[in-house]
């Protein structure tokens, strides 16, 4: 049975890990997101991905708007992450992923949902490339 939850252990909260991710991680853009990711060694917890979400204060000066964008993004991630988790568990990998929202307007939920699915497919391809080079 699939669980559609986003628990505390799945959230990227470690300051050290976030700093390392921004310093050493790889990045790509799928508008309206900039995605930074990095494999985590040794594994930190039982979940294959720790995810973080951010929205610029400069582009959204009101906290209400920033929180709305983060809430929508987390919901899209929560509903679509399971297939990505399965791929990572088969390869026994663990990732840290950070989503940065870059648009100046709040996109509709359907747009964000489709963009998160594109991001997940791109991450799967990046992981496959990384496995072939090993």
TrEMBL record:
Reaction equation(s) it catalyzes: Endonucleolytic cleavage of RNA, removing 5'-extranucleotides from tRNA precursor
Keywords per UniProt: Endonuclease, Hydrolase, Nuclease, RNA-binding, tRNA processing
EC number: 3.1.26.5
Alphabetized Pfam families for the sequence: Ribonuclease_P (PF00825)
GO biological process: tRNA 5'-leader removal
Gene Ontology CC entries for this record: ribonuclease P complex
EC top class, as a word: hydrolase
A GO MF term: 3'-tRNA processing endoribonuclease activity
Function of the protein: RNaseP catalyzes the removal of the 5'-leader sequence from pre-tRNA to produce the mature 5'-terminus. It can also cleave other RNA substrates such as 4.5S RNA. The protein component plays an auxiliary but essential role in vivo by binding to the 5'-leader sequence and broadening the substrate specificity of the ribozyme.
Family, per entry: Belongs to the RnpA family.
Subunit and partners: Consists of a catalytic RNA component (M1 or rnpB) and a protein subunit.
Protein name: Ribonuclease P protein component
Organism annotation: Chitinophaga tropicalis
